[in-house]
Amino acid sequence: xxxxxxxxxxxxxxxxxxxxxxxxxxxxxxxxxxxxxxxxxxxxxxxxxxxxxxxxxxxxxxxxxxxxxxxxxxxxxxxxxxxxxxxxxxxxxxxxxxxxxxxxx
Length: 105
Fold this sequence. Notes:
Strand order of the largest sheet: 6-7-2-1-8
Largest sheet: 5 strands, antiparallel
Radius of gyration: 12 Å
Structural class: alpha+beta
């Protein structure tokens, strides 16, 4: 997981470093798939602007190990939007100002 973000078994895996930067102490994330952009959008639930712009689904951010790696179980989003959920590293952009992760799908 050198990229910081990957898919494994329909779960999006965050390295401890990326999870800490983005989510800090928040344990839930808003996620939506923006079809027109072809991006999966992920942000902490503390980002209230996101709810106003999109109709996101809230997911629990699960602890995976003692290092602090975290995952989001996004199987329903992959299925509903017919997205490729094959295990792989993901290309993403973190927009620090709005605390948003844009994942190229």
